[in-house]
Amino acid sequence: MLSVVEYWVTGRQETFKNYLLEFRVHLMSLSSDDKQNMQLDFNYIPSPIVNDRNSFRFYVPTGMDVAYESDYVMLPSTSYKVRSGSVRS
Fold it and tell me: Which domain holds residue 28?
């Protein structure tokens, strides 16, 4: 008696990427009314206008140290200064 045995082996290869943090930089501006009210009343809280058109997005690995200072984002080997919707190194 002859028996036939068939095997099907299927699989897939998975690669894991490191997790990334997404940073978004949005330019904001104040209306002339907000600017004037801030000068007249120091308790006034303005409503900034976010300009999405000039937004910038970048990704950083979770293991990387990030320091913030004013309008700078400091990364270990690179410094980016954000001004007027552009990023300069």
Answer: 20-88
